[in-house]
Amino acid sequence: MAAPSAKIKMFHIPILQRVLSYLQPISLRQSASDVSGNLELLLYHNRFQLFTEGAFYSNGDHYFPAVAVAKCLGDFLPAITSVLVLGAGLGSIVNVMHSRGYNPRYTLVEKDKTVLKWALEILGEGDSPELDPVCDDAESFMAQNERPYDLVFVDVFKGRRVPEFVTTPLFLRQCRNSLSPGGRLALNYIEIDQHKWANAQRVVAGIFPGCQLVSKDDNRVLISSGVMASPRDRAARL
Asked: How many Å apart are CA 231 and CA 189, to the nearest integer?
C-alpha cells in the first residue's frame, strides 16, 4: 500500500526527556504488532531506537549499517538522488545521509504499519527530505517494482534473522534490475549461522561481483560496485 510523498510533524519530546536520555533510555511509545510482536520506541543519547522481541533496530545517525554504507560510498554520495530502503525501520539511513549534507528522495518500504508510522513522525521533524512511504512486504514490492534507484538498501529482518528470500537469486536480480545505471546495492546481514552466511555471500557475489564487506560484531554489510543491469535482465524482470 503506497502513500503520497509525506511530511508529518514529529510528536513533541520535552527538553528534559532529551537531556535525561543521555543518562538512561527513555521509553516514548509501546505497541503490540501483528507483524513484529511487542514494539518499543526509545530515546537514548537523543537518538531514536526501536526494540522488538529479541532485536534492536535503528540508532539515528549512529546506526552502523547505514554509517558503513555512507562511508564506503564516499564520492558516490553526491550522485545519489533516489534511495530505496527495504525494511525501513525508523529510517536511520535518512538521518545518516542528512548528517553528511545529502537529502535524496527516499522510498521507505516497511511491512509493519506501526513502525512506518513512527518512522514518518521522526523523519518529519524540521527540514526533512522527500519521503515516499510504502506499507508492504519487501519481497512483494520488489516483484512488481519498475522504478530505478541510485541506491537500494536492503535491511530486512525478522528478529535477528534475515528472511530466506533476501539472499535468493530471484530477489537479488530484482534488486539489480531496480538500480539506475551505476547504482549501488547495500545489504545488511547478521551472521548467526556461518554456513548460511557463506552461502549468502556466494549467491550475492554471483549477482553482484566484487562487493565490499564491512563488519562489526555480528553485522555484515555487503556493498556493491556500480552496476549496469543488462537490457535482457530488465526485460525479463526476474
From this structure: 29
Residues 6+ positions from 15 with CB-CB distance below 8 Å = none
pTM of the predicted model as reported, rounded to 2 decimal places: 0.88
The tens-digit pLDDT sequence of the chain (238 residues) is 444 334 444 567 889 999 999 999 999 999 988 888 899 999 999 999 998 876 777 888 899 999 999 999 999 999 999 999 999 999 999 999 999 999 999 999 999 999 999 999 988 755 667 999 999 999 999 999 999 999 999 999 887 889 999 999 999 999 999 999 999 999 999 988 899 999 999 999 999 999 999 999 889 999 998 765 544 444 444 4
